[in-house]
Amino acid sequence: MQLQVARIGKPHGIRGEVTVQVLTDAPEDRFVPGTEFVVEPAAAGPLTVSSARWNKDILLLGFEEVADRNRAETLRGAKLFIETEELDEDDDEGWYEHELVGLEARVGSQVVGKVTALNTMPVQDLLVVTTPGGDEILIPFVEQIVPEVNIEEGFILLTPPDGLFDVNSDEAPAPEAEGNA
Questions:
Q1: In 3D, which of 130, 154, 125, 157 has the Cα closest to residue 142?
Q2: CB–CB of 127/156 below 8 Å?
Q3: Which of 120, 36, 121 is nearest to 80 (CA)?
Q4: Residue 57, by phi and psi: left (phi above 0), alpha (psi -120 to 50) or beta?
Q5: 155-157 and 104-107: which strand pairing?
Q6: Taking phi first (over 0 means left), then psi (-120 to 50 degrees means alpha), and beta for anything else, what does residue 16 get?
Q7: Which of 19, 77, 90, 156 is least surrounded, with the fewest CB atoms within 10 Å of its CB?
Q8: Tens digit of pLDDT for each residue in 50-66?
Q9: The whole model's pTM is what?
Q10: Residue 58 CB neighbour total at 10 angstroms
């Protein structure tokens, strides 16, 4: 199985560097010279990192196979993947989106939906849970609200605060007006 770690953006300069949207929490480990990526579309790769540097908050990569801006332009939108066999399976620090999508979301023994995505945000990650009625609920992926993730048995256990599943529903009570007139 492959794990996407970046998406190539626009070229930078005339020597073939490209900007990348980083999709990994360890860019300093993933984007080192000599690292080879599987590329989608396959015709664009494989690509081997020759240089990696930060320009403010943007990661710039150079590849051995890319010598100029014209070739770099052909890579725009390409996705970079690593083989998951390279990953440390004993890492208890977190989960990847492909591990979470499809898990049942439970409150106690009641199934309240399925995990359909993981939104990685700067402050905290959000699980997207789709209810049986088709509503999408964003769940803060913190231990207090998601105390258990059981990949083997196919579920996550939630302890949501009151009203979390009612926030965007038609049955939600109207917010009370503030007395600041």
A1: 125
A2: yes
A3: 36
A4: alpha
A5: parallel
A6: left
A7: 90
A8: 999 988 888 999 999 99
A9: 0.51
A10: 13
Report d(CA 73, CA 18) in Å as an integer: 8
38 and 81 in contact (C-beta within 8 Å)?
Answer: yes
CB 39 within 8 A of CB 80: yes
Arithmetic mean of pLDDT, 118-123: 72
126-130 and 136-140 beta bridge pairing = antiparallel
Query: Is residue 162 within a helix (H) or strand (E), and if so which, with residue range?
Result: none
Cβ neighbors of 24 (< 8 A, separation 6 or more) are 5, 6, 30
User: What DSSP line would sit under 7-48, residue for residue?
Assistant: EEEEEETTTTEEEEEE-SS-HHHHS-TT-EEEEESGGG--EE
**For residue 109, how many other CB atoms are within 10 A of its CB?**
6
Stated as kind and residue range, the H or E segment containing 58 is strand 58-63
Task: Return the closest-CA partner of residue 15 out of 74, 72, 76.
Answer: 72
Handedness of CA 159, 116, 3, 11 (dihedral sign): negative
d(CA 132, CA 151): 21
Q: Could you give the 3-state DSSP secondary structure of residue 177?
A: coil
From 8, 24, 22, select the one nearest 62 (Cα to Cα): 8
Q: Which comes out higher in pLDDT, residue 46 or 123?
A: 46
CA gyration radius, the chain? 21
Quote the longest CA-to-CA distance of the chain.
65
